[in-house]
Design goal:
It is a single chain. By secondary structure, the protein is α+β, with helices and mostly antiparallel strands. About 25% of the residues lie in helices and about 40% in strands. The chain is built from three helices and seven strands. The protein has a seven-stranded antiparallel β-sheet, with helices on both faces. It is globular, with a radius of gyration of 15 Å. The relative contact order is 0.23.
Length: about 140
C-alpha cells in the first residue's frame, strides 16, 4: 500500500502504462493508455500533436491520470498543458526515451518510426495535479 509521496514517486517511476483521460468534444470522457514519466508530482506524456487527446486538451484542459498495479493505485486529477519551451520539450522527450530504453535510428526515429524530437509532429503534455489520490 502506498503511504506517502516517496512511495508514490517510486511507484510511478516503476510503472510503464497509465490511463490518460480528457474531456471529448461531446463532453464525454476519452481515456487512452499512455507511456508517461513522473517528476515532482507532475506527469509528462510524449504524444502526437494530431492525437485526439491533444485536440481535446486544447478545448478543455481538465485531465486525469490513473496508474495502478494489483491493489496499489495513483489517481491524479488536474489540468494539462502543452509544453512550449524547446528546452523543456527536449528534456521531457529524453526522459521518455530513457525510461522506456528506446533506441533511435540515424534519422532520430524510434522502432515504430516515430520522430520523437520533431516538435512540429510531437509534443509533451504536462499534467499539473490539483487532486492526488493514492492507496
Amino acid at each position: 500500500m502506498l503511504k506517502n509521496s516517496r512511495d508514490v514517486r517510486d511507484f510511478m517511476e516503476r510503472k510503464r502504462l497509465a490511463g490518460f483521460a480528457t474531456v471529448g468534444l461531446k463532453n464525454e470522457p476519452h481515456v487512452v493508455p499512455v507511456f508517461f514519466t513522473y517528476e515532482d508530482g507532475k506527469v509528462y506524456v510524449q504524444t502526437s500533436r494530431e492525437s485526439v487527446k491533444v485536440r481535446n486538451l486544447l478545448k478543455n484542459n481538465k485531465v486525469a491520470v490513473a496508474v495502478y498495479s494489483g491493489e496499489e493505485a495513483v489517481v491524479l486529477r488536474g489540468e494539462g498543458r502543452i509544453l512550449d519551451s524547446d528546452e523543456e520539450f527536449a528534456r521531457r522527450t529524453q526522459d521518455h526515451i530513457d525510461k522506456y530504453r528506446l533506441k533511435l535510428n540515424e534519422n532520430g526515429r524510434d522502432s515504430m518510426g516515430i520522430p520523437l524530437f520533431d516538435k512540429e509532429l510531437r509534443c509533451v503534455i504536462e499534467v499539473i495535479p490539483t487532486r492526488r489520490i493514492f492507496w
